Amino acid sequence: MSSDGVAADELELPIKRTTGETMEERLTANAYHNILPARYLRKNADGEPIEDPEELFDRVARNVALAEAVFEAENQGVEVTVTPDQLKPDHPRRDELAAEVFGAGTTAEDDAETTLTAHNVNKFAYDTVVPELPESVREHVEATADRFRDGMEQLSFMPNSPTLMNAGDELQQLSACFVDSPADDITDIHQTAKEAAEVFQSGGGMGYAFWKLRPYGDSVGSTGGIASGPITFMRTFDQMCETIAQGGARRGAQMGVMRVSHPDVIQFIHAKNKDVSLAHSLRLNDPDDFTHNSFADALEEARELIDEDGKVPEHLRNAVEGHLSNFNISVGVTDDFMEALYNDEEFTFTNPRTEEPHVATPETKEIYDMFGLGEHVEVGEVLSIPAQELWDDMIEGAHENGEPGVIYLERVNKEHSFDVEENPDHRILATNPCVTGDTLISTENGLVEAEELYEQGVSRDVVVDGRLSEETLKEASSVYKTGEKDVYKLTTEEGYELRLTDDHRVMTDDGWVEAGNLDAGDTVHIQNRKGSFGQHGTAAEGRVLGWMVGDGHLKTGEERAVLNFYDEDAEVSESFAADVNEVVRDPVGNADYEIGVNEIARGDDYRGTQAIEQRIRSTRLYEYAEEAGLVDQKHQVPEAVLRGSEEMARGYLRALFSADGSVQGSSKNGRSIRLASSELDLLKQTQRLLLNFGIASRIYKERRPAQSRELPDGNGETKKYDTKAQHELAITKANQQRFAEEIGFLRDDKSEQLRENLDSYTYSPQSETFTATVAAVTPDGREEVYDLTEPETHSFVANGVVTHNCGEQPLEEYEACNLGHINLSTLAAQDAPDWRVWSDEHADEYASKEAAMSAFLEEAIDFEEFDERIDYGTRFLENVVTMSDFPVDKIEQKVRDMRKIGLGVMGLAQLYIQLGIQYGTEEGNEVARQLMTHINHASKQTSHELAQERGTFNDWEDSKYANPTEYRDWFEHYTGLDADEWADGFPIRNHNTTTIAPTGTTSMIGNTTGGCEPIYNVAYYKNVSDDVQGDEMLVEFDDYFLRTLEENDVDVDAVKQEAQEQMAANEFDGVDGLETVPDAIGELFVVTGDLSGKQHAAVQCACQEGVDSAISKTCNFPNDATAEEMEEVYRYIYDHGGKGVTVYRDGTRSKQVLTTRAKNTEFADESEAAEAIVEQIGEVFGGIESFLDNEDVQQAIDAEISDLLEASEQPRIDYSERSPRPDSLNGVTQRVETGYGKLYVTINEDDNGLPFELFANIGHSGGYTNSFTEALAKVISTALRSGVDPEEIVDELQGTRSPKVAWDKGEQIQSIPDAIGTALRRYLDDEIDKGIPQQQSLDDVEGVAEPPSQTDGGAVDAGTATDAPAEAPTADGPDAADDAAGADDAMQELIAAGESPECPECGGMNLYYSEGCKTCESCGWSEC
Fold first, then answer.
1. Residues of the chain with CATH 3.10.28.10
2. N or C, which end of the chain is more exposed by having fewer CB within 10 Å?
3. Could you give the CA distance from residue 421 to residue 430 in angstroms, rounded to a whole number?
4. How distant is the alpha carbon of residue 864 from its chain centre?
5. Cα separation of 1157 and 120, whole Å?
6. Cα–Cα distance for residue pair 689/700, rounded to 1 Å
7. Percent of the chain predicted with pLDDT > 70
8. What residues have CB less than 8 Å from 894, skipping those under 6 apart?
9. Which is it for strands 327-333 and 405-408: parallel, antiparallel or unpaired?
10. Strand extents, DSSP E, 1201-1335
């Protein structure tokens, strides 16, 4: 960029708006003419579009709006009836629909009638139903359809691809993805595969959790054999996905997840490695040795073929692409694994069948030997591997090609709309260490019980120990339940107690130790510094409650509270009267009076002549005490105090110790502050509250045992009373000084005694170590347990004890993705300010960056339009749930019950530019956080309004929305509303409303950036020729980039010229390298390559704060990024609450659904091999001469020469000459389905009716795949014309395998060579009808076109045939050669990596990665 002095306040940043009268004018030419026709427009049987883009959006809008007919009719009290003739007119199975809707045996021609409902409306057509509706209902439906249509036509909102493709069509399957995981049962595995097949046929994708399946080598009780493990079943699912042709114009995609604790996870991590994929190919199709019964043998051979740099011989490059090619795979990482990683410990695996630590079998040893970890495995012993070893394998895979990904299971969202323990149907199993619900956790708001934090459902900062971090508070996840488990009680000699599972770790002098492994005498750490407190409550309230607990009583019958003051206590009674009057300001009934001190007169013989007794009585104070819970249990630290302000907690302790505490001891027998009570629980709670002030203490039980004692009876006499045991809490050592500074006494005599004790120390009091000695760990029942995650120190303080965190959160089965995207790039206000200018002028006026950004966005965003899009986007997606026809009954039931939708965004990066904000900065992340939160809150409001119209989702009564005050913090976080105002429940239609999903092709339609991703680049190559190897490769520029240049009078032609020159020389590195672009503009056009992986991760975490569900975001890295940099991002997202990681390193070989773990280096060739051999000879022999002088070498050379001489004496073979080609031939063309598309094979006969030549075409003329196919056909033609037996050619070709397979006429087609062999065999076996067209002359076939694009599956006229290739078009202009050179480099890089360099849809060369998916810039094709 140039430092030309142009400042931000001089720039014009053009505000984007969709303009144009027609759709063709509004859409880009690429979207209108390429993407929509190729991907979304309805087509006839010949694949030709039968609608235009205007009709596309109208079809979708009307179909989705049809749901309104049902609900609006119900609102108006009108019944709408329908008849069979109103079913979808073009549906090929109308009679089946009629039977489903109107009853068995009914056909579309019958006279029948039924009510239109939410369960059958998706079987009808807008055109047949809406005209017949009552006028008021019809007008509402038509208005909604217009609203939906306008949103799409103005590119303001775009639904996901399945909705665009299938709405109003036969499939009517409008959801993108589904979750369905197999159980550890062969029947369920096959049932899941069946359900997945139905989803693929409908155009959807599937996600599976494979960790429930028992590991390789585990016993199978039904057969007495051993299990093959989950990877084998994944291969079955992969093959099924490959085979099924989808009706929804989308290729099946699958996500496989394996929990890191599964014993076979090492096999899963390496499943898509280059060596593993090659081994599978060799085992199945090795021309040299087809008897590889052992995969280990095949793997060993594969590794011998791959050199140390990861290079594969060129002829084997296709063999490394096929294994699990239809899967994206991710490892489900748990907190206990991350703990082991951070602590450099081993990680123990769990057998999912037994839920116990996995004991290694010989098969376990076998698979770990394969991947270099066998040294850690002993058969018969528990399987435990260094966590770092597994982690390194995962990171290396990510570095090489982005797989396997990682999902942090514990992040999969406790912020759920259901209390999953109260409603177990809404969770799956979790097995993690945890604590009981009554555990007091030290938080930013004081001491709060774990169960209460769980019910609040929001993240809290927690207190961490000073030995683990200098910072007192650390950000943590919300608390979540992990199930019902066996509980143990950890007790200490000092009185600290904690109830927890035996595998929960606590901090000791020896580090983290599981509770079950603690022994009596071990030391555990307790909180060693002052913690944090809440915001509510006054010192006066604390003092009143403290004295009430210490020296007060409650007269329940009279409903009166009494504070008692005896003797020296009288000095504070008047101050307490003032406190009580402050606390109980509001009168109860007629009790509106000043509360004072009452003197109690007693006889001299009661307690002596000097005795004083005073009381403060109050009905209003009774009410206050009752609210604090003291009426039910007087001797306690009230919850209001535990979570109250520091002043309230201090006041409580000061009053309690003033009433019942004492200062004791001397230099001879020790000094201490003591609190005596017969209520042990009160002392335990007090001990925990003291520790939050950094004051450690010790409880002595039964300092005075229970007994009968003579005590005054109140009538001047004495009487024997049974007394409870008395316990004492003692504060000693330096804690006394801390007490004096933090708490103190209200009474002067006690304060003076404490001061004298502290002054009497010759030296400072002994310092506190903040440890406690374990007394015992004993079983304590079974109950619900809880946990949280603090990502930095991995700890929190529970009942004063320093404990480790852990936990995981699961996803629900059978849910579906119903997605839509708001276009943020057209929401900037017309007069939006530039943040760079605005912040210089106004940022200092605000207390925080968040407040400043909020004020800026009020000026910069058109919130009226924003809210309109949120409103109709939410309504649109809610209708999609009603209108979608789901392929599996269980999925339909789950989706309709929960009505989960995902309203997301696209165009965030382009919005940033219009606002003068750089992508990846803190300011940009704050914008994302606030905008996503606004969408979340506003969509909840619309969903609430929909619930009032249509009713809540079916399980609403079990959700947190039904009880907002019980889940106050959760509710207010996700709705932005006051829980008290919705105490009776917040009706809502959809339990989730927001997400950020991939928007690859839909964002291209909207002419904006994808999702929350940055701009890919401002310039890229675009192919304008059908010939991908031709010269017409031109540079295309981002249109908003050019528009910005034009608005600011920058020489656009000069910018283009500079960019083209750099691209031709492979030196283009984004805007940074363009001297013709002013800095003030260039700094805003942040492209993917400009960002570090950590910056990508920060954007993801910022967006997540305002989203219900997950975020689709790729953390992109430059090609030279190291594995260490990638690991930093994995840890960053884990440490900052992210749910998962998707990465891509530029230039690496990652095909997402079609991918391998191959390194992206060139394949080994002969010259490289020669260099390597020479180098090795030098290392071993010291040079070539020494090598040749070696006796063994000479003998080998002599033997080779002898063999050559012997061969030279053999008779020379005369190769046959090709038969000349006559002027005309008869032929037949067949169409064969392959995994790479439709293959057309033409076989021409000679005059004797024998095959003479063969032509084959697939894909686009001149394309990568087609060029290989044409070359193979020419070789076959040469063989035929040279007299080779066609049966031998069939034998050679058939059975050749490749990564992609297909089915054709009941036969599996394993590759293109296999397809050609099959076509030739069918010809020879006379299995096709041979239509014989006549060719007139050779001249007629010189410029032959491609074979027909469609057939009926049998033979068609061959037309003309020739072996003369068509010439490629040539570009004009001086820049064409340079442009083509750059294109050739890009193409060679792809070819060297074993990939096809062309888009399989349009043949274009401009593939790029968008949201982790390879995407075509020309036609919008995506592999995801």
1. 539-712+719-764
2. N
3. 11
4. 31
5. 47
6. 17
7. 79
8. 812, 813, 814, 815, 816
9. parallel
10. 1226-1234, 1237-1245, 1251-1258, 1302-1304, 1307-1309
Fold (topology level) of 431-528+773-804: Endonuclease - Pi-scei; Chain A, domain 1 (2.170.16)
Enumerate the CATH 2.170.16.10 domain ranges in the chain, comma separated: 431-528+773-804
| Rounded-to-10 torsion of CA 1138, 1144, 1146, 1152 | -150
Return the exposure string of 1366-1377: e unless at least 16 CB atoms fall within 10 Å of the residue's CB, then b.
eebeebeeebbe
395 is written with which tokens? 């990171």
Residue where the block lists tokens 């399957």:
173
Nearest CA among 986, 811, 1008, 1007 for reference residue 410: 811
Q: Which residue has the tokens 């007008």?
A: 139
Residue 881 · residue 795 · CB < 8 Å: no
Specify the pLDDT at position 1419. 66
**Beta-strand relationship, 698-704 and 726-731:** antiparallel
Q: What pLDDT digit, counting tens, does each position of 327-353 carry? A: 788 888 888 898 899 999 999 999 988
Which sign, positive or negative, has the C-alpha torsion 116, 118, 120, 121? positive
Residues 239 and 327 sit within 8 Å (Cβ to Cβ): no
Please state, as a whole number, how many other Cβ atoms lie within 10 Å of the Cβ of residue 609: 8
Residue 1247, pLDDT score: 82
Task: Give Cβ neighbours of residue 60 (< 8 Å, ≥ 6 apart).
Answer: 148, 152, 159, 163, 164, 167, 168
Question: Which pLDDT tens digit goes with each residue over 765-823?
Answer: 888 999 999 999 999 998 888 888 776 787 899 999 999 874 332 335 566 778 899 99
What is the phi/psi pair of residue 649, to 5°? -65, -40
Q: What is the distance between the alpha carbons of residues 176 and 641, in angstroms, rounded to a whole number?
A: 50
Q: Which residue has the higher pLDDT, 931 or 889?
A: 931
Rounded to whole angstroms, how far apart are CA atoms 227 and 214?
7
Cα gap 1258→1261, rounded to integer Å: 8
User: In sequence order, what are the beta bridge partners of 722?
Assistant: 708
DSSP letters for 651-670: HHHHHHHHHHEEEEEETTTE
Please enumerate in sequence order all residues whose Cβ is within 8 A of that of 294, keeping only pairs 6 or more positions apart, or say none.
none
| Structure token digits, residue 769 | 């170590």
Structure tokens, 548: 């009430």
> pLDDT confidence of 51, banded at 50, 70, 90?
very high
Which of 1001, 1000, 1407, 885 has its CA nearest to residue 39?
1001
CB 900 within 8 A of CB 819: no
- Residue 34 has what pLDDT? 84
| φ, ψ for residue 605, nearest 5 deg | -85, 0
In terms of pLDDT, which residue wins out, 558 or 646? 646
Q: What is the pLDDT of residue 482?
A: 65
Bridge-based pairing state of the strands 1143-1145 and 1140-1141: unpaired
For helices 889-898 and 186-201, what crossing angle results, to 10°?
70
Burial label for 1105, CB within 10 Å (0-12, 13-18, 19+), is middle
pLDDT at 1105 over 90: no
Of the pLDDT bands very low, low, confident and very high (cuts 50, 70, 90), residue 187 is confident
278: nearest Cα among 323, 324, 235, 320: 320
Residue 671 or 988, more confident: 988
CATH architecture designation of domain 539-712+719-764: Roll (3.10)
CA angle 879, 881, 882 (to 5 degrees): 65
Q: Please indicate, yes or no, whether the overall pTM of this predicted structure exceeds 0.90.
A: no
Length of the chain: 1424
Question: Angle at Cα 473 formed by Cα 470 and Cα 476, nearest 5°?
Answer: 125
The confidence score (pLDDT) of residue 167 equals 93
